[in-house]
Structure formats: structure tokens, C-alpha cells
Amino acid sequence: MKFSTAAVAALTTAVASVSANFTIYEPWGETTWTAGETGVVTWSASADLFQSRCEIHLLTGNATDATFVTNFTANGNLVPCNYTKANLHPLPDYASGQYFIRIGPNGAVTDQYAYSGLFNFVGNGTVLPDGETPASASTAAAAPTVNDAATAQSA
Q1: What is the pLDDT of residues 81-138, one digit of tens each?
Q2: Region Disordered: what ranges (predicted)?
């Protein structure tokens, strides 16, 4: 799923991402996550969110054309917004590249989310982003062809 939002413009800054409700401290540019290991997200939230539950998403792309990769907090794994740290483990084996995190109250509009800076992810790409399916390759054998006129006549 692709989206474009002005809120993601914070990705281009060199300081912690700040929304009206959150400040993300980690991951950031010098951070590297590796598939199979633990990814750490640290943040602070405003007092008005202390009773809320938060989502943590992984995205890739750039500020104007980001692609949703996964919701780390899906299936009832929401975290209290007043927590200051989440350890995500084991990290799925997504393709190597530049990724970023967004965090916000469950069900909120993305304008209420905070975004981390881009950071490196090292993986082999054996796990596809949520909603993507493998490209299907044809497994049928090609029909034999006859290129020789003499062979064609004797067949």
C-alpha cells in the first residue's frame, strides 16, 4: 500500500521526529536492524495519550511515496503509548534497504503519528511486505519446436 503525506516529511530531518503527541528517538540514521535479531523503538508520548494503545508500523520508500511493510503491533499486540520502548523480535527477513518507523494511537489518522528517520535493514527478502504476494512464474515446460524442415517432414 502506497501513501503520501506531509507528516512523513519529517524523515528528511536530522533530529528526532516530533509530532504533537510523540517524539521518536530510535531507530534513526545510524541504526541498523538485521533480520532475525531484535529491533528497538524508543519514544516519548504526551500525557494525554497515557491511557491509549499504540501501533508501530514499518515502512520503506521516501517521504512522498512510502510503502507500508508491516504492523508490528497487529493481532492484539498494541503497546501502551506511555511505554517508552518496544523490543521487536525476531525481525522478519525483509529485503535489505532503507526503512522507517511510525508510531501512533491505534486507529488514528496518520497526521497524529510520529515518524523516525530512515535507517538500514539487513535481510535476504524471504518475507514480503504485508499484502504482497510472490510474483508467479510459469512452471509449464515450453513446447518443443522443430527448426529443421527435414525433421518436420519425417515426423
Answers
A1: 999 999 999 999 999 999 999 999 998 888 888 999 999 999 999 999 998 887 754 4
A2: 132-155
Name the amino acid, one letter, at 97: G
> Domain with 14 in it: what CATH number?
2.60.40
Grouping H, G, I as helix, E, B as strand and the rest as coil, residue 43 is strand
Q: Is residue 37 part of a domain?
A: yes
In a domain, 106, yes or no: yes
CB contact at 8 A, 110 and 5: yes
Identify the domain containing residue 84 by its residue range. Answer: 2-127
Three-state secondary structure string covering 96-118: EEEEEEEEEECCCCHHHCEECCC
| Among 21, 9, 8, 6, CA closest to 105 | 21
Count of domains for the chain: 1
Q: Is residue 149 part of a domain?
A: no
Q: Is residue 24 part of a domain?
A: yes
* Grid cell digits, residue 86: 518496544
Has this prediction a pTM greater than 0.70? yes
